[in-house]
Amino acid sequence: MIIPPRYTIFSLVVLAAILSLAAIFLISPWFSLVAVLLVPLALLGIHDLMQTRHAILRNYPVIGHIRFLIENFRPEIRQYMIEGDQDELPFSRQARALVYQRAKGAEDKRPFGTIENVYSSGYSWLTHSATPMHIPDSDFRVHIGGKDCRQPYDASLYNISAMSFGALSGNAILALNKGAKKGGFAHDTGEGGISRYHRDGGGDLIYQVASGYFGCRNDDGSFSREKFAKTSADPQIKMIEIKLSQGAKPGHGGMLPASKISAEIAEARGIPMGVDCISPPAHSTFSTPIGLIEFVGELRALSNGKPIGFKLCIGHRREFLSIIKAMLKTGILPDFIVIDGAEGGTGAAPVEFANRVGMPMLEGLTFVHNALRGAGLRDQIRLGAAGKIISAYDIARAFALGADWCNSGRGFMFAIGCIQAQSCHTNKCPVGIATQDQTRQKALDVADKSERVARFHRNTMRALAEIAGAAGLSDPRDFMPYHFMFRQKDSVFLDGNEVYPYLPDGFLLADDEYPELADWYDRWERASAESFAPPEIPFGPFGSQRKRPGIQERAV
């Protein structure tokens, strides 16, 4: 009988196991130590041959498990042995190291020059001034609250983005919130409601109201005005954010299985134990642009005048213009809008959504900023930006494109020890951040990590003051697109005004049109305050009447 080469190791293991068992009786009981190792391996190999789930194990019994073992450690192997400083999966080693150093208060300088390829397509840089300035105070604040807001909030320019308790451990939430308290900045609760860990930290909160209405829901999952009014009265809550979508999985709902709902999660979300918790893709309280804007006004009244805004990742641009038309028609304005980019993070998202759905932050922010300018509303509404913003340069660039402040989720996760293991969805986070495992999260020391959160924020704000001063500015909010240059290809670069221009104030409402803005006028005409649905169009490409001959596009 000829044994195929792929069964050689398995055959040797079985033979060695048989011999070790015989040796126990014929030579010495000490061979039982060898048998303890070999007999389970032989039984494993037999099981591999009989099982039908994995073809590789049937063809390569015993040794086939090496493949699965290595696959389990692939992210760590790549991160520690293969990954270069500039490989972005999704954050480069250089970017992570910057956060670690600033959070620890360690040296964050680099010797021997940049490792960036400054002549490659996509490289961007900040233009500096021959007369730089020194900015001694880096505690920059933005005043959030419009004409109808009775409890405005002076927010830091850099805050913790939405991450729910349940997605993050209790110790992680507590460390983040204590750090926010120490550093004087805000912590977005995420859609999972306000947990005891948010409250124990004492830091300023942005209460997120999503489609599941956690913390303000009736038993059937609908919005409860009474519960919202009670929750929002908490002085720790400084602003309320309606979540329409998040960058990592816009338009996608979710379900938390009953098996994963602990007593603490049920308490924070206001849901029963033993029942699957559904987060619908869309809100049940409104379904039209006017409905959304009226909901903004209702929440402002129920919260006794706290700043109300909404967060979204831009999808159909026409739909956002519909929201603006609803603002103009009702006279109700949100106090703020947060633009989340498609590069945003999450504990788990379908690959198609994470990779291919939604507009990236730079384009989304620029669009919203110019849309509000076009309607003459930009000065009345604050804009927040989120999406891989972890350095002072990231913040400065977002300000130049229209942001009034920035949020970061994964940046602050790095500050409390995240190693980018990318196991957030497994409940086996190696550093106790993205897990509900009590043993794992105990490894996260709240006192130490909260100091790192505050220190990372403080050092990032100092760095922001330094690069603003280098540009000759006295405040980072004075950054404009022309302060940045963007390389398009090896030998061509453009001024920021050419790549991300500010469009004329009020151009969407003016009588005279700018021919080069034909796309904007077409979408504006198709937008409706009464409905998100597009107007009926003929099959085939939609041809703009304003465009040059031969240029067509499909309606969105």
UniProtKB/TrEMBL annotation:
Transmembrane intervals: 7-27
Keyword Membrane applies: yes
UniProt keywords, alphabetically: Membrane, Transmembrane, Transmembrane helix
InterPro entries per record: Aldolase_TIM, GltB, Glu_synthdom, YerD
Pfam families, per database record: Glu_synthase
Entry coiled-coil feature ranges: none
Domain Glutamate synthase positions: 158-473
Span list, region Disordered: 535-556
Keyword Transmembrane: yes
PANTHER family per UniProt: ARCHAEAL-TYPE GLUTAMATE SYNTHASE [NADPH] (PTHR43819:SF1)
Family to which the UniProt record says this protein belongs: Belongs to the glutamate synthase family.
Protein's recorded name: FMN-binding glutamate synthase family protein
Organism encoding this protein: Paracoccus methylovorus
Lineage: Bacteria, Pseudomonadati, Pseudomonadota, Alphaproteobacteria, Rhodobacterales
